[in-house]
Design a protein that fits this description.
The protein contains 4 helices and 14 strands. Helix content is 13%, strand content 36%. The chain has a single domain, classed as Roll (Pnp Oxidase, Chain A). It binds flavin mononucleotide. The site of flavin mononucleotide has 22 residues, from strand 3, helix 1, helix 2 and helix 3.
């Protein structure tokens, strides 16, 4: 079951550094790519930043539409993540093929605020509006976005945090390079050593 995450807590969906999927759409063209370089940027209003190479179709669609979405894929989606992160959407168009959603059989639903195509098997979804470049972003292909909707799967995210303890294979994945990922290890509850 999908639950809405308060926007003030949207950063928690990315705090643990998962590899994400980036959805984009302009007109009737939609696309999906993988991104390991995504991060929370601010609480209020909630912001994220993601590096999206200017050679990608994703970048062109986002620049044309002004919106994008980040989703958190699972262990069960690792091959899909590598695939949409290796195949260029533009090459599919050039070859007259279906887009990545059709070609790789990705179930999708429409984002509640921006209507972006979101992969249904993921465990969290953030729809974002592109923010103006604050100065340093452009040099690094970094896109800042304001989060306008945040949702998560209650099986693995509830009460304000992730519950990956018993979530196999619905855990997030973390790219280390060359198509190799780790999943999260042990959960640690910590205390502040300076607290009286
Ligand atoms: C695990 C993984 C992580 C990636 N991370 C990024 C990233 O953070 N930024 C980026 O620009 N490209 C990243 N890529 C590469 C893009 O996903 C890739 O260029 C993709 O084919 C672009 O698709 P498009 O041209 O259809 O938009 C990553 C690829 C993989 C497999």
């Amino acid at each position: 079951m999908r639950i809405e995450v308060p926007l003030a807590q949207a950063s928690r969906l990315l705090n643990h550094g998962p590899t994400v999927l980036v959805s984009s759409q302009h007109g009737n063209q939609r696309n999906l790519m993988a991104a390991a370089w995504a991060m929370p940027l601010d609480f209020k209003p909630p912001k994220v930043a993601v590096v999206i190479d200017r050679q990608t179709l994703t970048r062109r669609l986002i620049e044309a539409s002004g919106v994008f979405a980040l989703s958190v894929p699972t262990l069960a989606m690792a091959d899909l993540c590598t695939t949409v992160g290796s195949v260029s959407g533009q090459s599919l168009i050039d070859q007259g093929r279906e887009d990545k959603f059709g070609r790789f059989g990705i179930d999708q639903f429409s984002g509640p605020v921006l209507g972006l195509p979101l992969p249904a098997q993921a465990i969290a979804w953030l729809e974002c509006r592109v923010l103006p470049d604050f100065g340093v972003f452009d040099a690094y292909d970094l896109l800042p976005g304001e989060v306008v909707s945040a949702w998560a799967d209650a099986e693995v995210y509830r009460d304000g945090r992730w519950h990956f303890e018993a979530a196999d294979p619905r855990r997030s994945i973390h790219h280390v390079g060359g198509g190799v990922y780790f999943t999260l290890g042990e959960m640690l509850h910590t205390r502040n050593l300076d607290a009286s």
